[in-house]
Amino acid sequence: MGGRGAPSRRRQAGRRLRYLPTGSFPFLLLLLLLCIQLGGGQKKKENLLAEKVEQLMEWSSRRSIFRMNGDKFRKFIKAPPRNYSMIVMFTALQPQRQCSVCRQANEEYQILANSWRYSSAFCNKLFFSMVDYDEGTDVFQQLNMNSAPTFMHFPPKGRPKRADTFDLQRIGFAAEQLAKWIADRTDIHIRVFRPPNYSGTIALALLVSLVGGLLYLRRNNLEFIYNKTGWAMVSLCIVFAMTSGQMWNHIRGPPYAHKNPHNGQVSYIHGSSQAQFVAESHIILVLNAAITMGMVLLNEAATSKGDVGKRRIICLVGLGLVVFFFSFLLSIFRSKYHGYPYSFLIK
């Protein structure tokens, strides 16, 4: 029975083989070769990615921010594969560029990168790099970038979106603001650790010592403490500092001014109502002080009982200060709040 059944099964298998189309074997062979090639390509990509990550980790072990030229930028940032986020600062730190804002931003960027490097959450999913204009001019041209400093986030997949460019003009470049932006783009939270700064403590100690020494020397005559004019001057200085935006500067850390890299023109007034430069706050402080001085002179001319001619001169000087500097202040307001219809003397 077993001998007769075996030939029968062989004949059935032969019939099944004869039913296969004659062109199926080359197709199956091609499919097999394609699968092998795809598997080899995938393996090659994995090896390339592993090499890139290993190289980036080696650079990060040496310094928190590594510099890139055009070739490195294209290899590690533009070219796939990539499973990590890259934060890049485009800057111009060479002395001949005279970019003071770039140096200030670089200090904050260094604080942020160091905080990430020495963080317990440090991993190979986020790296910090820098492209200097004199080392990667082709990169600036490729990205159509005409200003520095600029911070950009290059995600693991796809091209950077609009939100991947940090709004430095509106937010400033403080390390804490950069860390918040990175958390929004990558879900990686960096706790910023600043190096200890004792300048504030030393300044406070000197001030206390100065006031204490002054009180000790004048201990027999402390009538100046009750001087209303002195306290009024101190109060005005505090008001001028606060109303000019000094606290905003302290929180946001904006640049002192902006220099156009193409024509070298320096802007001291920010063109947006959502931001300001440090120089702008100084200008506003001086304008407010001049207007206040004019108001004081007008009050003095109206309340004093001196010579009429002298009071008239004081009145005219005070009126001139108020009119001119208020017009100047209003023109700055119009330049920041576009569409504001009112002006006075100065447009």
Give a quick precis of the structure.
With 347 residues, the chain is α/β, with parallel strands linked by helices. It is built from 12 helices and 6 strands. The protein is elongated.
Please provide a written account of the structure:
With 347 residues, the chain is of the alpha/beta class. It folds into two domains: 144 residues, Glutaredoxin; 112 residues, no CATH class. Helices cover 59% and strands 7% of the residues. The strands form two sheets. It has a four-stranded mixed beta sheet, with helices on both faces. A two-stranded antiparallel ribbon has the order 5-6. Helix 11 runs antiparallel to helix 12. About 3% of the residues have low confidence. It is found in: Endoplasmic reticulum membrane. InterPro entries: OligosaccharylTrfase_OST3/OST6, Thioredoxin-like_sf. Keywords: Disulfide bond, Endoplasmic reticulum, Magnesium, Membrane, Signal, Transmembrane, Transmembrane helix, Transport.
Secondary-structure map:
Elements: H1 2-19, H2 24-62, E1 65-67, H3 70-78, E2 85-91, H4 100-117, E3 126-132, H5 137-142, E4 150-154, H6 168-171, H7 175-186, H8 199-217, H9 228-243, H10 246-252, E5 258-259, E6 266-267, H11 278-303, H12 308-336
Parallel strand pairs: 1-3, 2-3
Antiparallel strand pairs: 2-4, 5-6
